Amino acid sequence: MVGCVLYLAAWLEDDETGARTAVMGKPAKKVICGSPSTEPLNVAAAEQAAAVLQAAGINGITTDRIRSVVWDKLVGNAQWNPLSALTLQPLGYLCRGHMVELALSIGKEVVAVAEAVGGIEPGEVDLEARLEMTRQLPHGFKTSMLQDIEAGREPETGPLLTAVIEVAGEAQVEVPVLKALGAMVRARGDALAGVHGPLPGAGA
User: Fold this and answer.
1) Are residue 9 and residue 80 in the same domain, yes or no?
2) Residue 169 — pLDDT band, cuts 50, 70, 90?
């Protein structure tokens, strides 16, 4: 078993009429491979995967803490994807000004969950440093969830919000901001799907 974390930017390109004509992307900065266990066969498989990527000209690297890498990337995705879906704003707007405090609150909740389940060590994720890293991206960068909303697709709340909220419940970590975001993004997804009445089993 091998875990991988990919860092890749992709976006839709429009022509002069506004019609979407192509999916564009930048070469992957890196692909981090690692085993979720210390099983020798899994560790060797991760090293082989990274070697194959390197041979293909892709920056494949290995880590012995793949769970930490997954949580680290999830922090950023959980911060910016829901906010972009709800505000329809790109990262350049969100990571500056009045949205920053909310984004940091989201990050703190995800980090608390990750620390509670042993995914990362206390103090391992520097939210301020991650914020500065985000500010280096193009001002008009759109998250995948914002691209989903603009295309009329249901936003990917499951892996980015719902899963974290479920793990938080099992670990008895309070995540009120994540729960509020999850409810609002799901409501936006329902609106896109044409669901405007009461949901089955919902209270009055």
Assistant:
1) no
2) very high
